[in-house]
Amino acid sequence: MFELSSTEVPNLHIRTERAEDRREVRSVNIAAFGRADEAGLVEALHAEGAVLLSIVAAIENRIAGHILFSRMHIETDTGLLSAVALAPVAVLPEFQRRGIGSRLIQHGIEALRDRGERILIVLGHPAYYSRFGFSVSMAAGLASPFPPEAYMAMELAPGALDVVRGTVRYARAFGLQAPS
Question: Which of 2, 71, 104, 133 is spaced 20 to 30 Å from 16 by Cα?
């Protein structure tokens, strides 16, 4: 189990999600996004068996944030290449802008590197995600159904994306059609 304390929020602990956290994780995602779509995605990814890592930020006994990483692939001319999708990351509104989301992302990146993962992909705001090492240019060789200005990748291992060209394939739970 991962266990870190934060200086930004007293009594904040980052740890791996437990089965008994699922109901509260759902509530955090609904509150953070103002809708149930992301909460449903989390549940569908768990049901599909695509979850690689699910982490929570807890303040005492209350979950204040959540991040999920799932298996995805890049279809290349030579076959499928494993990659990881970061989605979603959620923090309760009353705890936003206090570093909790950043801590979850940093912790997840470190844990994925420790597990030997090589490529991490996210759809989001470039100004926010670039500070963690994501870049639009790293994802330039990847065909996706998303706007290229918000589609970013990160090498968890140096050179992992050097010559990779292909089409991203997310877990079924994302409900995406193959890009044309």
Answer: 133
Spatial CB neighbours of 140, under 8 Å, sequence gap ≥ 6: 148
Quote the Cα angle for 129-60-87, to 5°.
25
Identify the CA nearest to 102 among candidates 118, 110, 94: 110
How is residue 51 written in tokens?
């979850």
- Residues 1-40: pLDDT tens digits? 334 444 467 789 999 999 999 999 999 999 999 999 999 9
Separation of alpha carbons 68 and 46, rounded Å: 10
| pTM over cut 0.90 | yes
CA-nearest of 135, 141, 147, 154 to 74 is 141
Output the six-digit token pair for 131: 């500070």
Cβ atoms of 125 and 89 within 8 Å: the answer is no
Sign of the dihedral defined by the CA atoms of residues 32, 34, 37, 39, in that order: positive
Distance CA 91, CA 67 (A): 9
